[in-house]
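Progress note, sequence design subtask.
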């Protein structure tokens, strides 16, 4: 099977690529920064580009049997817009153009880490949620 993996330099995406190659699949990893992907394999093609680059995304999905998205939310607090949603839309449009029908999307929730620096607005929203009826009442 020929797979295209978006988000291949992240923790989940790296495992997806490794497992695909271990199974004997061919994989195309679409990454922003090639230097962050330290996997080398004869059945691995690494393509670098931005999710906003329609032509590069189209080339990455071309002839794939399936596309796997392991994209995560931006950790850059200054990011504006909806880059994850826009990037996913670009991927799906490229798949439709090329007739690729299988898509697996993995969602990564953005959870607070105790080592995170808390901003004033984050402190306010956290304390508001804790006092409101929206606060979780049961563990998942």
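Output:
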């Amino acid at each position: 099977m020929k797979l295209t993996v978006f988000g291949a330099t992240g923790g989940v995406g790296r495992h997806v690529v490794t497992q695909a190659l271990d199974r004997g699949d061919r994989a195309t990893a679409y990454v922003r920064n090639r230097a962050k992907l330290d996997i080398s394999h004869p059945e691995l093609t690494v393509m670098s580009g931005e999710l906003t680059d329609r032509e590069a995304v189209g080339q990455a999905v071309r002839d794939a049997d399936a596309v796997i998205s392991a994209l995560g939310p931006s950790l850059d607090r200054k990011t504006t817009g909806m880059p994850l949603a826009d990037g996913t839309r670009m991927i799906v449009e490229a798949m439709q153009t090329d007739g690729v029908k299988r898509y697996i999307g993995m969602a990564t929730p953005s959870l607070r880490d105790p080592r995170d620096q808390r901003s004033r607005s984050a402190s306010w929203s956290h304390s508001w949620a804790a006092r409101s009826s929206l606060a979780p009442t049961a563990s998942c």
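The radius of gyration is 18 Å. Work on this subtask will continue into the next period as scheduled.
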